[in-house]
Amino acid sequence: MKTGLLSLLLLLSILLAACGGPPDYEHQIPPAVERGEDLQRSEVRLPTRREKRVEDLLAGMTTEEKVGQMFFVRVPEEGAAGDVSAYHLGGYILFGRDTKDQTAGSLRQKIQSWQDAAAIPLLIGVDEEGGTVVRVSSNPQLRETKFRSPQKLFAAGGLEAIRADAREKRALLASLGINVNLAPVVDVSTGPEDFIYDRSFGQDAAATADYAAAVVAEMEGVGSVLKHFPGYGDNTDTHTGVANDQRPYEQFLTSDFLPFRAGIEAGAGGVLVCHNIVACMDPDLPASLSPEVHRILREELGFTGVAMTDDLAMDAVKAYAEEGSAAVLAVLAGNDLVVAGDYREQIPQVIAAVTDGRIPLETVDTAVRRVLGWKYDLGLLGE
Description:
The protein is of the alpha/beta class. The chain has helices at about 1-20, 25-30, 30-35, 40, 50-60, 65-70, 80-85, 95-100, 105-115, 150-175, 205-220, 250-265, 290-300, 315-320, 325-335, 345-355, 360-375, and strands at about 70-75, 90-95, 125, 130, 135, 180, 225-230, 245, 270-275, 275-280, 305-310, 340. It has 2 domains: about 1-45, no CATH class; about 55-375, TIM Barrel, CATH 3.20.20.300. Strand 1, helix 7 (about 80-85) and strand 2 form a beta-alpha-beta unit. It is globular.
């Protein structure tokens, strides 16, 4: 019996030696657990479909293609389809002349011709605010009557009228091939003498915040653009000159920022930055060209979507552009999209600034990621 037991123990010892000894269970414990960390937090996060699609596109793009994606431009009077491919444009914005005398069918066909020319689908935008700015519904062939202003809608039926109006806008724009509405205007303005008043909701900050959230929520599928950050206030018209905003920062914190926060939380994909010089944030540069204003938008308001300039053709920015390089300054400030009519001149200047190192390629990549991400969210990129 003892001889059998000894033989068995000898056999076991030989087998263990051949296998390298007993399992070292201590070294099989995941390092994170051994350190007392949460294993779930230590795991590598896999990219989402959205991220993978964006990164795959970005990896195959040239510098020229990347820069082109950063331009959301006015439709030229001639050569629109050709410019889409020649300049690799991110998108077109339609104005009144582009929708005038068009039928729904002819406008759809025109927009589709631009999309057919694009390697990456275009953002197609329009200012359909209601009231005084109605690029689509100003044409009776596209809608029998113009969309009413937010103030008139609210007076007639409260926020439910606002929501119903937004749903109708979404359906009309989408049916025409328009995927971005440069609205709502969420500037807080309660004085009829203010330049922006007629385009605003005309209520205090809290009510305007409710308005912003309501509109953005109903526009799902058509991108919303909150404007004009950081808040227009009672300033003058920047289409024709410089507006200097001398209000204290506290007023922005307690009033102007509230509708932007609400719209961002509701899912707005875009924020348009105005040309006002806001002294409490940056006394030297228009907001659209100010890195500090964009830092506030990102860090203080937590916006991760697409920041874009107001139209760089406005007089308010001309004095600040060196040799016409307003777009270079806009990119360096932190804009992801540049709104410009003279893109044929501005795009080569931005490409040159990337090539010579004035604009880091990383800055361009970050911006293009946001633009492509927005396009994905709008269903333009597929899988």
